[in-house]
Amino acid sequence: MNQISPLQQARYDYQPKLPSVFMESGPFAAARSGEETHSVADQKQIKELFPDIYGLPTVTFARGSTFDCPPLKVGVILSGGQAPGGHNVIAGLFDGLKALNPDSELFGFLGGPSGLVDNKYIKLNEALVNQYRNTGGFDMICSGRTKLEKDEQFAQVTQNCAEHGIKAIVIIGGDDSNTNACALAQYMLTHKTGVQVIGCPKTIDGDLKNAWIEVSFGFDTATKVYSELIGNIMRDANSSRKYWHFIKLMGRSASHIALECALQTHPNFCLISEEVEEKGMSLNQIVDQITALVVARAENKMKYGVVLIPEGLIEFIPESKVLIAELNNFIGKNKATFEGLTSDGKLEYVVKHLSPASLKAFESMPLMIRKQLLADRDSFGNVQVSRIETEKMLAALVEERLAGINKARAAQGAKPVAFSAQTHFFGYEGRCSAPSNFDADYCYSLGYTAAALIGAGKTGFMASVRYLSCPAQDWEAGGIPLTMMMNMETRHGKDVPVIRKALVDLSGKPFKTFVEHREAWGIGTEYVYPGPIQYFGPSAVCDLTTVTLRLEQA
Ligand code: FBP
């Protein structure tokens, strides 16, 4: 065991808060059924694919009385990217199961979904769980990105569950992992295995949300960590007054992280991918906007600034989206030839086959980005947009644009606009941070809710904890059928059922608040320096939720 820091030692003693229904009734709370549910779209197809889950009513826990619960054997996996609080979901699940029956057992399958298929596990006991309470990371049982979606895999999972006598599986993951949880739940029902499947909403990206899942866990902590770092950079920029900082922020697709960080710190410029797509903005227009701001600030003697860029941006710029689709398609079809080429050879090969519009978009990008678009591909041959250094691309393009402007200024005898850029990418810095009090409480409550759903015999549900901007005791715990979040989408040329990603709502309060202020933040220096996450002290400081959640629930 590694040496433990004094802070972590103190965090072991932190008792996460639970909704009052669990404080009173433990996991024996009564599962009250609500309204019958429907999927967000494509009801007919979703119903046909998940006949035993579709339409099930939502569940809310109310005060209940103890019932005789047999010892339960339950398996748990962490799936996808790390998010602060995962260990507390497991701790809440463990405590909930032990409260249902002290002889219950929890199997932690290792390395994500593949552990469940390959039967790699450890049994979680009190001593082990105690070492991970209120800690960041997923290292207790680790995570993985194997897709659990084929019948052969489901059959293997069934066999493993039968071998151990496992009656329920909890899948802690994002939209894709919970889509797979739904398919597994349906498989278990179709084959009458008696194994229940419950999902828990995880992802720092914050794109797994709806009226019942107000936020996925990890978003709160990760955005606080990034906002602290952005605030520190802003203070540096405002002290030295010589750099423009271009900061890319994680978030595979949606811009929730960038928006939340902007609301917390008030940068000079922040792109929201969803707005870029809606307005059909080109890369040139984006560069023009940033350049205009650099010039305007320089005219006010401010040679510095901070720009936030969401990680998924490139796929939301219409011309780049078409380009990426063409590249994915072409490279996917010519994988063998493509992989045999050098980096320069790849460039020559693809330019011969792009449409004129995509060729123009491709050639407008700096060489480094063109190479990145061709270099990093996932197992399906798709470009991994998270590895595209858009922060460097934008800084380079602004510099190029300014060179032209400065040439014209020189001809008129005007002083050049000074511009010196620093680039950053904040992502991994926040994913394994020790959970904020909010995430520690929320995650523990989600795990406890999952145990209560298992005790109530539910399957094909996602644990839900609502009214999160209220004090924890007023939170409402329950569950929703996973089918409620689904629709049909085309993936790799096939129509498949998936949980719909929640992108930034351009008519929602968080985005509107940002729009109201962005001009003033652009030309002024209204930076906010949030400082580090606080774990001890006044509740107004320690239990603060995100600005997004507060605005959404105001
Ligand atoms: P999940 O959706 O699995 O939670 O992961 C989100 C994320 O953190 C994205 O923000 C990022 O693009 C991606 O994971 C990076 O993945 P990897 O850890 O494989 O580099």
Could you characterize the architecture of this molecule?
Helix content is 45%, strand content 15%. By secondary structure, the chain is an alpha/beta fold. It folds into three domains: 31-218 and 435-491, Rossmann fold (3-Layer(aba) Sandwich), CATH 3.40.50; 222-311 and 389-432 and 501-554, Rossmann fold, CATH 3.40.50.460; 315-387, Arc Repressor Mutant, subunit A (Orthogonal Bundle), CATH 1.10.10.480. The strands form three sheets. Strands 1, 2, 3, 4, 5, 6, 7, 8, 13 and 14 form a ten-stranded mixed beta sheet that branches. It has a four-stranded parallel beta sheet with strand order 10-11-9-12, with helices on both faces. Strand 3, helix 4 (86-100) and strand 4 form a beta-alpha-beta unit. Helix 10 packs across helix 21 and helix 15 crosses helix 17 (367-375). The longest helix has 22 residues, at 219-240. The protein is globular, with a radius of gyration of 25 Å. 49% of the residues are buried. The structure holds 1,6-di-O-phosphono-beta-D-fructofuranose. The site of 1,6-di-O-phosphono-beta-D-fructofuranose has 13 residues, from loops.
Layout of strands and helices, then pairs:
Layout: H1 6-12, H2 20-25, E1 30-33, H3 43-49, E2 59-62, E3 73-79, H4 86-100, E4 105-109, H5 113-118, E5 121-124, H6 126-130, E6 143-144, H7 151-164, E7 168-173, H8 175-190, E8 196-201, H9 219-240, E9 244-249, H10 256-265, E10 269-270, H11 273-279, H12 283-299, E11 305-310, H13 318-333, H14 335-339, H15 343-351, H16 356-363, H17 367-375, H18 390-411, E12 421-426, H19 428-431, H20 437-455, E13 461-466, E14 476-481, E15 486-491, E16 494-499, H21 509-523, H22 539-542, H23 547-552
Parallel strand pairs: 3-4, 3-6, 3-7, 7-8, 8-13, 9-11, 9-12, 10-11
Antiparallel strand pairs: 1-2, 2-14, 4-5, 13-14, 15-16
Helix pairs in contact: 4-20, 9-10, 10-21, 12-18, 13-16, 15-17
1,6-di-O-phosphono-beta-D-fructofuranose binds at residues 80-81, 83, 174, 203-205, 250-252, 311, 386, 431.
